[in-house]
Amino acid sequence: MRIRGAVLEEVGRARPYAASRPLSICELELAPPGPGEVLVRIEAAGVCHSDLSVVDGTRVRPVPMLLGHEAAGRVERAGPGVDDIEAGQRVVMTFLPRCGACEGCATDGVTPCVRGSAANNAGTLLSRGVRLRRDGAPVLHHLGVSGFATHAVVDRHSVVPVDDDVPPEVAAVLGCAVLTGGGAVNAGRPAPGQTVTVVGLGGVGMAALITALAVDGVTVIGVDGNPDKLAAARRLGAHATYRPAELAASGIRAPIVIEAAGNVRAFEAAVAATAPGGRTVTVGLPAPDARSSISPLGLVAEGRTIVGSYLGSAVPARDIPVFVRMWREGRLPVEALVSARIRLSDVNEAMDQLADGTVIRQVIVFDAF
Ligand SMILES: [Zn+2]
Ligand SMILES: [Zn+2]
How many A from CA of 249 to the centre of ligand 1? Predict the structure, then answer.
């Protein structure tokens, strides 16, 4: 079938992206779902920092690639062998399929799926197939999702069903921001009476913030360089907010600190702001060549732990229903993470906004315009 999508043509084009247009909106041919795959009509897709990292080359991926890894939609057709999901079902896409059979999948979300990671690095689906073509030439999949498009074919392991009462924008954001940020909070295991500090208040950091606020008796501190984001964090219920320099000067240290900015300065600030006996959960994705300087003695003498948490150490099929329940109970205001609803054709401008660090989550909506 013919679809429309946003294809990254070349890595590392100059900003502003509104002028250099690294993503072209074009027509592509989408093959039918193969065995174990589903065809999904995309309803909403969030623009995440990990998309920008592919555009600017911080995360090196092969091109041409149809970007977008945080999305939700309705299943239009199930491929051969898929008997537990039907046409019409709303699904959240998840960007790291768990095949359920490898050694990574045998862990509790701590280790990513080995097959899923290999497929993601190759730009293919879990089957190692590619279902996208443009003018006869293959176009690669982004993290098994490629959600910046009207439709996608994905592996059954890349979707989690949700009920119809979950709106598309909420469902989309559950798949990356909430799963990652909320999962990082879970990985920190906060107890009543403890403080959770979140460093970096983009989509993932704000999701961590609202998840921490949903834990009874926890005090939540938000840290970011942008005063607008600090104000947004306070509106969401943060008990205190600081710019990074203010936090360092305050000497405040918390038993659980989440690093959600994905750069070395934020990582080092998060480690420095972790109390004796505490856990620094690092969930941001710095450039592969980034290197940090911290004191090993500080870790030993104060009995502190650094926890690396990819995708919030989440198991999507297990954890998304938990976040949906919290949202339905009014304890997790996921809508508040959506700072703008945009068109697919606005995606280059959205990358500029993201690079400026002024937005929380821009969501492409396909039916609203
Ligand atoms: Zn993401
Ligand atoms: Zn696996």
Answer: 31
CA of 153 to the centre of ligand 1 (A): 19
The DSSP line for 175-208 is IIIIHHHHHHHHHH---TT-EEEEE--SHHHHHH
Closest ligand to residue 103's CA: 2
- Tell me, in angstroms, the distance from the centre of ligand 1 to residue 180's CA: 8
| Arithmetic mean of pLDDT over the chain | 96
pLDDT at position 202, please?
A: 92
Q: What domains lie within the chain, and their CATH numbers?
A: 2-164+333-365 (3.90.180.10), 178-312 (3.40.50.720)
pLDDT in tens, 68-97: 999 999 999 999 999 999 999 999 999 999
pTM of this prediction exceeds 0.90: yes
Q: Which ligand is nearest to the CA of 46?
A: 1
Find the DSSP H helices in 224-329: 227-236, 244-250, 264-272, 296-302, 316-328
pLDDT in the model for residue 358: 84
**Nearest ligand by distance to the CA of 109:** 2
Q: Where are the beta strands (DSSP E) in the chain?
A: 2-8, 23-30, 37-47, 65-66, 70-78, 90-93, 132-134, 137-141, 151-155, 159-161, 195-199, 219-223, 240-242, 254-259, 274-282, 305-308, 338-342, 361-365
In the reported structure, the alpha carbon of residue 7 is separated from the centroid of ligand 2 by a whole-number distance in angstroms of: 28
Predicted pLDDT at 367 = 74
Question: Quick one: pLDDT at residue 369?
Answer: 47
Q: How far, in Å, is the centroid of ligand 2 from the Cα of 297?
A: 36
Q: What spacing in Å lies between the alpha carbon of 176 and ligand 1's midpoint?
A: 5
